[in-house]
């Protein structure tokens, strides 16, 4: 019998990371618009980004060991392909954004502190030109990530309200 729900771990990772990623996107926007709050927001943004990176690694490992339930057989082929490509893009951005942020901080000469007095080693050489490039890439990909999250939510709501095919319920555990 085919799996009809995501595992409890997959659901927990999905929803907790969704909340963290949304928070990160809004914190990122606030960081570039508020000089007063910027230092405080950066102090939240960096460790939260590293937590997302760690959870993305755990999530990818879990997904490989526990494949998601199959999409409905009557889902149009193009929609199934778009769903698959969007998931690949979401995972790529869950890895790329924290790594870009870490590299950007390194290139800017900023330390990335961890709890208990540890700091991450530099991921890139200190270089103002590289910092500028990475900062631009981080910002552009942040907007792309936000757009992809909105598309993901729209797709989920389409499954929940229009198709009513159980895809949304598989992730909520309400089947």
Automatic annotation (TrEMBL):
Main subcellular location: membrane
Residue ranges crossing the lipid bilayer per the database entry: 12-32, 44-61, 82-104, 140-162
GO process annotations (BP): respiratory electron transport chain
A single MF term (Gene Ontology): metal ion binding
Subcellular localization: Cell membrane
GO CC terms: plasma membrane
Cytochrome b561 bacterial/Ni-hydrogenase domain: residues covered: 6-173
Cofactor(s) essential for the protein: heme b
SUPFAM superfamilies: Transmembrane di-heme cytochromes
Pfam families referenced in this protein's UniProt entry, alphabetically: Ni_hydr_CYTB
Domain of life: Bacteria
Keyword list, A-Z: Cell membrane, Electron transport, Heme, Iron, Membrane, Metal-binding, Transmembrane, Transmembrane helix, Transport
Membrane topology, from the record: Multi-pass membrane protein
Family designation: Belongs to the cytochrome b561 family.
Record-given protein name: Cytochrome B
Organism: Arenimonas caeni
